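Lab meeting, item 3. Inverse folding demo.
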């Protein structure tokens, strides 16, 4: 199951990269960092959804009235690690976007 989760994350990462690389070439030099930060913010925000998907698929097939609703801790360990790292990456992505937009905010305050 961990391999399935890792494969889904690999595919998700590849899709984000395939969109990001042409986008970087299309923008001006001043906004490249902003485009990269937004792409990784989107990646890290949606990665927990994709890493949780296989577990949801498996447990969706169980009968809702079944008394055996135990969760396998080994299946959830990788998921918890990835979600924790994604929260960290989302925080750093938001900080990078805020730092990139800070000169724009300073410029706007001058004109106010």
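The presenter then showed the designed sequence:
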């Amino acid at each position: 199951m961990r391999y399935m989760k890792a494969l889904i994350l690999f595919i998700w990462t590849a899709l984000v990269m395939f969109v990001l690389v042409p986008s970087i070439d299309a923008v001006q030099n001043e906004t490249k960092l902003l485009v990269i930060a937004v792409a990784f913010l989107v990646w890290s925000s949606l990665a927990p959804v994709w890493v949780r998907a296989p577990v949801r698929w498996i447990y969706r097939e169980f009968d809702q009235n079944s008394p055996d609703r135990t969760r396998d801790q080994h299946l959830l360990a990788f998921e918890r690690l990835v979600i924790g790292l994604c929260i960290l990456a989302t925080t750093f992505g938001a900080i990078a976007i805020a730092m990139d937009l800070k000169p724009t905010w300073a410029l706007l305050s001058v004109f106010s």
